Amino acid sequence: MLKRIEVFFFLYVVVHLGFLFGFVHGVAMGDSEGVKKPLTDKDVWSSISEKAESSRPLEVRFNEPAKHWTDSFPIGNGRLGAMVWGGVATETLNLNEDTLWTGTPGYYTDPGVPPILSEVRKLVDDGQYAAATTAALNLSGDASNVYQFLGDMKLEFDDSNATYDKGTYKRVLDLDTATVKVEYSANGVEYLREYFALNPDQVIAMKISGNKLANLNFTVYLDSKLHHHSYVNDKNQIIMDGSCQGRRIPPKVYGNDSPILRGPPKSNESSNPQGIQYSAVLDLQISDGAGGVRVLDGRKLRVEGCNSAIILLVASSSFDGPFTKPVDSKKDPKSSSISKMDSVKRFSYGDLYARHIDDYQALFHRVSLQLSKSSKNVTVNPLRENTDETISTAQRVKSFKINEDPSLVELLFQYGRYLLISCSRPGTQVANLQGIWNKDIEPAWDGAQHLNINLQMNYWPSLPCNLNECQEPLFDYISSLSINGKKTAEVNYNASGWVAHQVSDLWAKTSPDRGQAVWALWQMGGAWLCTHLWEHYTYTMDKDFLRNKAYPLMESCASFLLDWLIEGRGGFLETNPSTSPEHTFIAPDGKPASVSYSSTMDMAIINEVFSSIVSAAEVLGKKEDALIARVRKAQPRLYPTKIARDGSIMECKTLRILRCIIGMYRTYLAYSQGTRLLLKKLLIYVKQQTIPYIKEEKMVQGGRLCGKLLFGHVFVIAIMRIR
């Protein structure tokens, strides 16, 4: 999926800038093989005064309404999310609730796998990689389920807003307050809208006002692409009840990445099981002394002649954990939503905003970043004097290719932190492929958790960016994966411990996905996630977390890896079959293939997990345990990384996706064996591959940022840091 030239602007920041700062931090930690001493804020970040910070407002700004979904602004409280378009005549908020998915808990096992696995291994041993790739199709399982779209909040304003003064329009996302504001003038009235998503009270709030009395007229309603029914009660509230499909939507077809489907699903679930139920409640309040509200069509609210209006939205679902079928859930989403709204309405709008600011800034204000205003061979942006007040973010991005603006990099960095805070909080679901934001019933790649890099990337910024609480949903998710993964390991692979493959979902799917081996068959997803557990300990030094949460998961994962490894060529321990996710190669017989043995990706992750479990055992006094003895004996026998003459890793000769160079950052392989020279060569190679992208002509297309261009800048900065 990452072969697309462009990536969504907001996802880019979470993924790529999170990677950059996580990587730089990892290299700065040094070459110690033991526990890495956490760096203080003073060691890592340059402090800046309040005056300096206030002179550089952390605002994403546009001077027109959004034309595309990727132009709109995301807000979220970890569980509820919205994309704010900022339209004038009509306004749309695309709404999300993080537990709305298709499907029900799955089985994630296939007793028919072992004989097929033996066949594939023999083909690999015989060097018949293309044939092994074809045979490996029979190792795939059912497709993952699909993240769903709650619905839209629609506002339709009267004709007076149709002809507004475009020169007065501005749409701003203030990262310091996690608030969106839309301002414009129409027919002599200055209008202001404010939007925020409050975590403590789990509500999305919106206020609409004008500077003249009795000039606010609009209609508001809820709609959804899901099965639903909406109506207005006697409290000026719109109730929308609905349900997700109990069976996943047939997989989409994506050109050359199209999954190969083979017959009906392997699970024995009924053809039309009950899916997750949901309920949303919209509450409308208008200012005292002017205007009124009436009901239209039994499902819409019409506001006429008021001074200001406040809209609150809450939502709940019947999801009761990944192991409970929706039909067995005891949760009543309507009662839950109504109860939440009653609780929220105890507070005034001002009180809700104050609670939002206190909660959000307690996280966001932990880190500040100030980069130098100019550097060698860099021209200061001539627009800089006006950037903070009048220049749109789109214009700043366009000018960046010729005039580097350090404050734009600061903004991107903080935008990544904002997004992680907004989509992942204690008690929520893990951030999926799109965080929590989605406008489709059939989102790209199902909006699912992809364990071959995307889920990890979401959380790489959490520790170096001082947001360790935002990782808690990830650890809860790993725990769920380990439960299903034990069944998959035992039945599919006759192995102990637990395993998870490349794609998962709300139900903690651990079996291979359905389709081609190049992306569906990869046994290292759970192992890579386990590296986050040890990394969390090295930052927090929380021994209780290590003992009670992390170590049992790491221990069981290491147990699977030991059973999965087999003795191969030269007495090395290898993985077979092995893929490098989304990579293919030309086999010696000239045929394309993706299945081989001991990919660099596999071996680097196994090496990292083994190093982590050994270090954790030393901390907890378990270094004499039998499992640790097996790990110590196996680690020196792991198949080694092969380096080409040009300094590149053999697996990475065609550098489409950079997963396979995991060993050069954030892993034991990069900084525990003194391979700094190798690291530098690899970075130079990456720089050679990415520098051409910096000259990309068209940087902003339909509100999206050219991923290639900033991907190149990421590695240029990383190389400078190493030097």
UniProtKB/TrEMBL annotation:
Entry keywords, A to Z = Membrane, Transmembrane, Transmembrane helix
Report the domain of life of the source organism.
Eukaryota
What are the boundaries of the region Disordered? 254-274
UniProt entry tagged with the keyword Metal-binding: no
An example of a GO molecular function for this protein is: alpha-L-fucosidase activity
Tell me the lineage of the source organism. Answer: Eukaryota, Viridiplantae, Streptophyta, Embryophyta, Tracheophyta
Gene Ontology biological process terms, A to Z: carbohydrate metabolic process
Pfam families this protein is in? Answer: Glyco_hyd_65N_2, Glyco_hydro_95_cat
Membrane spanning stretches: 7-28
Indicate whether Transmembrane helix appears among the record's keywords.
yes
* Ranges for domain Glycosyl hydrolase family 95 catalytic: 348-652
- Give start and end of each Glycosyl hydrolase family 95 N-terminal domain: 61-321
The protein here is known as Alpha-L-fucosidase 2 isoform X1
